[in-house]
Amino acid sequence: MTALHTPVCDFLGIDVPIVQAGMSTYTTPQLVAAVSNAGGLGIIGGLGRTPDELRSEIRQVRELTSRPFGVNHVMCRLDPAAFQVTLAQRVPVLSLAWGRSEELTYQAHEAGMKVIHMVATPEEAGLVASDGADVIVAQGTEGGGHVGMMSTLPLVPLVVDVVGRVPVLAAGGIADGRGLAAVLMLGAQGALIGTRFLATPEARGRGHSKDVILNALGSQTLASSFYDDVMKQAWPGAIVRTVRHPLIEQWAERQQEWADAADQLRPSLEAAVAAGDLVLAGESSGLVHDIVPAGELVSRIAHQAKELLAKAGD
Ligand SMILES: Cc1cc2nc3c(=O)[nH]c(=O)nc-3n(C[C@H](O)[C@H](O)[C@H](O)COP(=O)(O)O)c2cc1C
User: Fold this and answer.
1) Contact 118/133 with Cβ under 8 angstroms?
2) pTM to 2 decimal places
3) Nearest protein Cα to ligand 1, atom 12
4) Distance 194 CA to ligand 1 centre (A)
5) How many CA atoms, within 13 angstroms, populate the side-chain half-sphere of residue 288?
């Protein structure tokens, strides 16, 4: 076992501890398969897909790879019919986030699936570990999309301490081998990465969203409840990190008014997201300097982490 090939790799049947986040409809079968074929774990985003669409995505991934892959479901917005598709298809890995469910974990285990569960606090980590999750993802607020309030640096070792022998993956702010090596030092056994995988040809962008990520500085993201307030969607414990955009900045100081103005603001918000002007992405956008095929990215991150870990061992 090398420093990079951690025990969770054997558990998940992967070569390197790099997991591509299941990012709703931003994932494609090509992205998922490319990551899995490169030795990482690709995850289909289940959120926002009908049961038929999800079934088709799973079928396409299976045509493109024979390696393990996963499907993500967001529990606070769960479509039970789509979840049943994931179960019936006996996908190798179920990825859960934003909510607890002993029952879903049990059902997945009964179907022979492994369960990885993302949390944003050490308290939640303890709970989902007792629900039977096989792997816990500790997601820091640096990440893109829906995130909690704690930063990756303290969150990961706190979660490691709470969950004992359950393997932990770190998420939030990791975009290269430096980040991966760093979280291994924190006690994580690998990394789950979202934003960096958006800047691949295989990811499904929105308009010029990939260019926005390429051009954004790490200091240019902002997390708030604006997105969910305007969309009128309940997402307990989460705020949404995006690259800064005038629409959000104009309203930044007027939080009291967001909910009241939601119906008026929603069309502009939806149009800005669809055009790729308003982009859900994390602070690691500042570390994204090229659009690179997802498989190459996995190799690049693994290679850099391996070199750093070898140097640290000298
Ligand atoms: C555009 C976008 C969409 C996302 N959608 C989901 C999702 O549907 N389900 C989920 O569990 N996490 C989702 N996430 C969060 C990721 O799972 C992950 O925690 C996060 O991207 C990690 O931080 P990073 O962006 O710094 O790599 C999303 C992230 C982004 C950037």
Assistant:
1) no
2) 0.97
3) 23
4) 5
5) 31
C-alpha atoms less than 13 angstroms from C-alpha of 180 in its C-beta half-sphere: 31
All domains of the chain, ordered by start, with CATH? Answer: 7-203+289-313 (3.20.20.70), 209-274 (no CATH)
Structure tokens of 100? Answer: 């607890």
Predicted confidence (pLDDT) per residue in 235-250, tens digit: 999 999 999 998 888 8
Q: How far is CA 121 from the centre of its chain?
A: 16
What is the rounded average pLDDT of the residues 174-202?
98
Mutate to test the pocket of ligand 1, among 24, 117, 212, 239 (most ligand atoms within 8 A of CB): 24
From 146, 169, 200, 221, mutation site for ligand 1 pocket: most ligand atoms within 8 A of C-beta: 146
Q: Are 34 and 202 in contact (CB under 8 A)?
A: yes
Q: How far is CA 40 from the centre of its chain?
A: 14
Q: With residue 127 as reference, give the H or E element that holds it.
A: helix 122-130
What pLDDT score was predicted for residue 255?
A: 79
70-84, 237-251, 280-294 — which is least confidently predicted? 237-251
Tell me if residue 224 falls in helix, strand or coil: strand
